[in-house]
C-alpha cells in the first residue's frame, strides 16, 4: 500500500461550515423540555381537577364573592355567601294555599266551582259556558293545555236551582238552591289528556315492566345515581315523595330520566325547582309529597306521557286492585333493579292497617295502605316517590310510595301518600308557576 500519497484526514478538504445536530442531540435540546412542559401541564390539570373534586365534595363556591363555604351551609336556611347564592336553588317549602276555585268530580269529570263568599261548591251550569271559562277553570288547577268540555245531564239536577258564581272575575252559572239551570246540563271538563297507556299490564304479581305501559314513570337521580321514582303529571311537572330530598336539598344535584325502562344516567333532564310542604309535627309521617319542575318541558311520546291526578271525590273501597312500579330493591337489603318492575297489589283499609299487629295507629287519613296482608308483593327502597296506580278507564296516581316496616313482610304492607288529600296543594304550586 502506497502511504506517501495519503494525507491526514483533517487535511483532505475544507471542514463543513456547520455540523448538523444528530437526532439524539435535537431530542435532548427540544424534545425533553417539550415533554417536561407537557407533563407538567397535564400534572397541573390533574391536580386542579382533583382539588376541584375535593372542594366540590366538601365546599360550596360562592360565585359572586369567590369564597368557599362548607357544603353543609348550602341550603341550610341561612345566607352564608354575601349575595345569598348558597340559598338560591334549594328545595322550597310551600304551605297549602286557600282552596282553588275549581275541581273535577269522578261523576263524568263534571266541573264544580267554589263560591268564595259562602265557601260552597256548585255544579258549573253549561248554559253560558265557553272556551274562555274552560281555560279559566283549568288555569285555576294549574293547567295550561287546551281543555275540552261538553254538556252532561245529571239525573237529580233537573229542575234544581242554580245561582251565579264567579271564576277569574267572569260570571259563571252554578247550581245551588234558588233558581233553575236553564239547559239542565252541567259541564264535563278535561284539562289535559292523561293516563293513557299503550298496553295493559298482564303479568300478575311482580315482573318486568315496559315503559310504554307506564310512560309517566321517571327515575329521579341525585348526582347521577337513581334515588327515587316519580310520575309525570304534566310536561313540566313530576310528582314524587318529599323524603327523597331529605338530605339533598340543592336543586342542581338532581336530574330526571324519562322514557326508559332501563336505568341510565345519560340524556337526563335538568330540574328548575323542587317544592315540598312543611312538616306537620302532629303527623310527621304525613305530607310526604313533592313537586319537581323541569327546566324545560318534556316532549310527549309513546314512552313519555302524563298520568292523571285522582278526582277529589273518588273513595276507593278496600281490596281495590292497584299497581306499583319502580327500580327499587327486589328484596329487603337488596340492590336496585336495572330494569323497571311492576306489581299488582290491593288497597288495605286503614283500620286493618292501624291494628296492633300492623301500624298501631300511625296511619292518618292522608295515607293509603296497600299490598298484601300475607306479604310477598311490596315496594321497597328506591321505589319511593313512584306511583300507586288505579285504573277506572284511565290511569290515575292515587298514591306515592312513602315508607313501610321492611319490604314484603306480612302484616306491614307498604305506606303511600294519599294524593287526593293534596290536590289543592298540587294545584296551588302549579298555579304559582304559571
Ligand atoms: C324506602 O325505604 C321504602 N315496603 C319504600 C317502601 C317501603 C319501605 C321502605 C314499603 O324507601
Any chance you could write out the topology, listing elements then pairs?
Layout: H1 23-58, E1 59-62, E2 67-70, E3 92-93, E4 102-104, E5 111-115, E6 120-123, H2 131-140, E7 148-152, E8 161-167, E9 170-175, E10 179-180, E11 186-190, E12 206-208, E13 217-222, E14 225-234, E15 237-240, E16 254-258, E17 269-276, E18 290-294, E19 321-326, E20 341-348, H3 350-353, E21 367-371, E22 387-390, E23 396-403, E24 414-418, H4 423-432
Parallel strand pairs: 3-17
Antiparallel strand pairs: 1-2, 4-5, 5-6, 7-11, 8-9, 8-10, 12-20, 13-14, 13-16, 14-15, 15-18, 16-17, 17-18, 19-20, 19-22, 20-21, 21-24, 22-23, 23-24
Residues 378-381, 383-384, 401, 403-404, 407, 414 line the site of 4-(aminomethyl)benzoic acid.
Notes on the structure:
With 434 residues, the chain is of the alpha+beta class. Helices cover 14% and strands 29% of the residues. The chain has 4 helices and 24 strands. The strands form 6 sheets. Strands 13-14-15-18-17-16 form a 6-stranded antiparallel beta barrel. A 6-stranded antiparallel β-barrel has the order 19-20-21-24-23-22. The N terminus is likely disordered.
Amino acid at each position: 500500500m502506497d502511504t506517501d500519497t495519503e494525507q491526514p484526514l483533517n487535511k483532505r478538504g475544507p471542514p463543513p461550515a456547520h455540523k448538523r445536530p444528530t437526532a439524539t442531540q435535537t431530542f435532548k435540546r427540544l424534545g425533553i423540555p417539550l415533554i417536561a412542559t407537557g407533563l407538567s401541564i397535564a400534572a397541573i390539570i390533574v391536580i386542579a381537577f382533583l382539588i376541584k373534586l375535593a372542594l366540590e365534595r366538601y365546599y360550596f363556591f360562592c360565585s359572586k364573592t369567590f369564597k368557599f363555604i362548607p357544603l353543609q351551609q348550602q341550603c341550610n336556611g341561612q345566607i352564608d355567601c354575601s349575595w345569598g347564592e348558597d340559598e338560591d336553588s334549594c328545595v322550597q317549602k310551600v304551605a297549602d294555599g286557600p282552596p282553588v276555585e275549581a275541581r273535577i268530580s269522578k261523576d263524568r269529570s263534571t266541573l264544580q266551582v267554589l263560591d268564595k263568599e259562602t265557601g260552597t261548591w256548585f255544579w258549573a251550569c253549561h248554559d253560558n259556558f265557553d272556551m274562555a271559562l274552560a281555560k279559566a277553570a283549568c288555569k285555576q288547577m294549574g293547567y295550561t293545555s287546551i281543555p275540552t268540555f261538553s254538556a252532561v245531564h245529571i239525573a237529580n239536577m233537573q229542575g234544581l236551582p242554580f245561582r251565579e258564581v264567579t271564576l277569574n272575575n267572569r260570571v259563571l252559572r252554578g247550581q245551588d238552591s234558588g233558581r233553575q239551570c236553564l239547559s239542565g246540563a252541567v259541564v264535563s271538563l278535561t284539562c289535559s289528556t292523561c293516563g293513557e297507556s299503550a298496553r295493559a299490564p298482564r303479568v300478575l304479581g311482580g315482573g318486568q315492566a315496559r315503559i310504554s305501559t307506564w310512560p309517566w314513570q321517571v327515575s329521579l337521580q341525585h348526582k347521577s345515581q337513581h334515588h327515587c321514582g316519580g310520575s309525570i303529571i304534566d310536561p313540566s311537572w313530576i310528582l314524587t315523595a318529599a323524603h327523597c330530598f331529605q338530605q339533598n336539598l340543592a336543586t342542581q344535584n338532581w336530574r330526571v330520566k324519562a322514557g326508559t325502562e332501563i336505568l341510565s344516567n345519560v340524556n337526563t333532564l335538568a330540574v328548575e325547582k323542587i317544592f315540598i310542604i312543611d312538616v306537620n309535627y302532629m303527623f310527621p309521617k304525613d305530607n310526604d309529597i313533592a313537586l319537581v319542575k323541569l327546566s324545560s318541558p318534556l316532549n310527549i311520546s309513546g314512552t313519555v306521557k302524563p298520568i292523571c291526578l285522582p278526582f277529589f271525590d273518588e273513595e276507593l273501597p278496600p281490596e281495590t286492585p292497584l299497581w306499583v312500579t319502580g327500580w327499587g330493591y327486589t328484596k329487603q337489603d337488596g340492590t336496585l333493579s336495572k330494569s323497571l318492575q311492576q306489581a299488582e297489589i290491593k288497597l288495605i283499609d286503614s283500620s286493618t292497617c292501624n291494628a296492633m299487629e300492623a301500624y298501631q295507629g300511625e296511619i292518618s287519613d292522608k295515607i293509603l295502605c296497600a299490598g298484601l296482608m300475607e306479604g310477598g308483593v311490596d315496594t321497597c327502597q328506591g321505589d319511593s316517590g313512584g306511583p300507586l296506580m288505579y285504573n277506572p278507564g284511565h290511569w290515575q296516581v292515587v298514591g306515592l310510595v312513602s315508607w313501610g316496616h321492611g319490604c314484603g313482610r306480612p302484616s306491614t304492607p307498604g305506606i303511600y301518600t294519599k294524593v287526593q288529600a293534596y290536590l289543592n296543594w298540587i294545584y296551588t304550586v302549579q298555579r304559582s308557576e304559571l
